[in-house]
Amino acid sequence: MNQAPHRALPIVSPFVAKLDVTLRHAKIPFAYAQVAMDKLPTGKMPTLHWNGTILSDSQLIVDALVKEGIMAQHPDAWMDPETRAVANMFRFSLETLPYGGLGIERWIDHWPSTRDLYFHKASWFFRYIFFPIVIRPKIVSNFKKTGILGYPMQARDDMIESFWEDASTLLGTKRYFFSENHMSTSDFAAFGFLFNFLAFKELTPKQSAAICKHQNLIQFVERVKKELYPEILTDAQAIESKKDK
């Protein structure tokens, strides 16, 4: 699977994080590898190299793994039709509105920070000439297609803040968004975005601040980290570790 390693996990894309947690939950072994952007079949991350085939787009990859029998069953197989419909609508909203906000904050408002964080090992020419002139405009254009750039700044901020407030209400006191016992593709997507925004607050300060207003969203991320990412200290563990030193 492709994505450049950084910090505690090699995840700088919420969709890569979504697939990462999906594969961990299904106990499917995988490894990260670099891949050229022009080799992505759909132009989207993540990609998965499997059986001589390159699959692209997190949801299409999951569907393919289920179809080929690599994943025992679809993550949403336990849901009844009504719950699945609501979960899909939540996931579609999550992958549209907050994602559009991510594009604005990372690739427009805080581009220098994004450049330095994502491409700190790249050559000077790539960081300051090739990527800003050739690649970045295409990325910004893709984000414009979400439609969110058509709203005034304050309206955008209010919409995104309202989304995370609604997400917090949906989660409530449950362990996961739609069940006390079972995760779903919506949980994987939610973790991918929440984890990503909280891990890279300097790139998306507005969304990170909106999320931090809701303790249950942060607790959800910490639970999943504890269950599926034993190599990462939870925030609470990190604080205790600093106290002991």
Class by SSE composition: mainly alpha
Biggest sheet strand order reads 1-2
Distance between the first and last residues' Cα? 36 Å
The biggest beta sheet reads: 2 strands, antiparallel
Calculate Rg over CA atoms.
Answer: 18 Å
Summarize the helix and strand pattern as letters: HEEHHHHHHHHHH
User: What proportion of the residues is helical, as a percent range?
Assistant: 55-70%
Description:
The protein is mainly alpha-helical. The chain contains 11 helices and 2 strands. It has helices spanning 14-25, 58-67, 81-94, 97-109, 111-118, 124-144, 153-171, 185-199, 205-211, 215-228, 235-244, and strands at residues 47-50, 53-56. Strands 1-2 form a two-stranded antiparallel sheet. A hairpin with a 2-residue loop joins strand 1 and strand 2. The longest helix has 21 residues, at 124-144. The protein is globular. Residues 1-10 and 238-245 have low confidence and may be disordered.
Summarize the structure.
With 245 residues, this protein is mostly helical. The chain is 58% helix and 3% strand.
Summary keywords:
two-stranded antiparallel ribbon; 245 residues; disordered N terminus; disordered C terminus
Give the topology.
Blueprint: H1 14-25, E1 47-50, E2 53-56, H2 58-67, H3 81-94, H4 97-109, H5 111-118, H6 124-144, H7 153-171, H8 185-199, H9 205-211, H10 215-228, H11 235-244
Antiparallel strand pairs: 1-2
